């Protein structure tokens, strides 16, 4: 497959009175043609900085970037017409209608007028096209932003949080639109915090933390590499869970309490759970392995999983995860 987007060793440093902060620290990313590619990272990880640098809005301190095989930012004027992008919150003139807004953008970009009608239909704004933008909800403004990015029929579409403000139906419509665009040959880079959607829609992902890549590949491969060792444990009705939990924790288990069951997060050998509890005449009604999902992998790789009794601050994330131990109970 052909790489539409290539980033290698990208660096960006900010200096302030507090010192030097590395927003990007040798970041790498490759996106193949015709894919929907998820670009994921916690707040402050360097995700938006990467997109802004790629589009020539920020000057990097080092590294290499290429779009459609051309080095950027040097060749950005040559490829800009083939790139559609939304980065951060889009801004529009409130007194203009959606149709006026897109018509002006089409005129400025040399896009045929018929395309305005087509993109309004695509994003579901056909019937509100002549309403002023100031009457739009956040989700409708987001739809208008996506329409503006699609005007040029780009080969590469970069969307930063396109589901922001959308209701569940709108999120599903956006998912279908992204898949249809990819099937038509467009390459889509999608940044989102809705990890369940990313898992459903994307062919591949790149995860960034503290300015570095911590995972990349197809969604299936990333999940396979980080297979969960967690198990769901339920006890017989009427049995007090507290004794079982205290007993397992005393033996080194990482236990998370749910409403009517608990999970053991480091169960290298689930049979040990049965043995330890049975010795105290505590018997199970369920012992189920939990498959890894993108959210749990993301939290593990970025070090942003909630910790009981602690308030994680922005930028408190792991640059690289510690190697997995074999799990408890082996």
TrEMBL record:
Key words, A-Z: ATP-binding, Nucleotide-binding, Transport
Region (Disordered): 311-330
InterPro entries: AAA+_ATPase, ABC_transporter-like_ATP-bd, ABC_transporter-like_CS, P-loop_NTPase
Pfam families: ABC_tran (PF00005)
Source organism (scientific name): Paractinoplanes hotanensis
Domain ABC transporter: 5-235
Gene3D superfamilies associated with the record: P-loop containing nucleotide triphosphate hydrolases (3.40.50.300)
Family named by the database record: Belongs to the ABC transporter superfamily.
Entry protein name: ATP-binding cassette domain-containing protein
């Amino acid at each position: 497959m052909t790489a539409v987007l290539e980033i290698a060793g990208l660096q960006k440093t900010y200096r302030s009175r507090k010192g030097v902060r590395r927003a990007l620290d040798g970041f790498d990313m490759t996106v193949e043609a015709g894919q929907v590619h998820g670009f994921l990272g916690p707040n402050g990880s360097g995700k938006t900085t990467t997109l802004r640098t790629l589009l020539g809005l920020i000057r990097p301190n080092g590294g290499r970037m290429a779009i459609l095989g051309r080095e950027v930012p040097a060749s950005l004027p040559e490829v800009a017409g083939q790139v559609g992008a939304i980065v951060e919150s889009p801004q529009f003139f409130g007194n203009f209608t959606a149709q006026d807004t897109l018509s002006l953008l089409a005129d400025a970009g040399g896009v045929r007028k018929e395309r305005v009608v087509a993109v309004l239909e695509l994003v579901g704004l056909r019937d509100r096209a002549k309403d002023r933008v100031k009457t739009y909800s956040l989700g409708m403004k987001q739809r208008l932003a996506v329409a503006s990015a699609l005007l040029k029929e780009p080969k590469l579409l970069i969307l930063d949080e396109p589901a922001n403000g959308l209701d569940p139906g709108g999120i599903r419509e956006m998912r279908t639109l992204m898949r249809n665009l990819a099937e038509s040959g467009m390459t889509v880079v999608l940044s989102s915090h809705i990890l369940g959607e990313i898992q459903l829609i994307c062919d591949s992902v790149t995860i960034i933390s503290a300015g570095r890549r911590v995972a990349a590949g197809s969604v299936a491969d990333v999940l396979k590499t980080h297979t969960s060792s967690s198990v769901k444990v339920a006890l017989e009705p009427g049995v007090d869970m507290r004794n079982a939990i205290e007993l397992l924790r005393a033996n080194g288990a990482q236990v998370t309490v749910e409403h009517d069951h608990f999970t053991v997060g480091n169960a290298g050998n689930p049979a040990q759970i049965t043995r330890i509890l049975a010795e105290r005449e505590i018997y199970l009604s369920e012992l189920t392995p939990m498959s890894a999902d993108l959210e749990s992998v993301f939290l593990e790789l970025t070090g942003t999983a909630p910790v009981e009794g602690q308030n994680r601050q922005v930028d408190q994330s792991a640059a690289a995860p510690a190697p997995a131990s074999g799990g408890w109970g082996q």
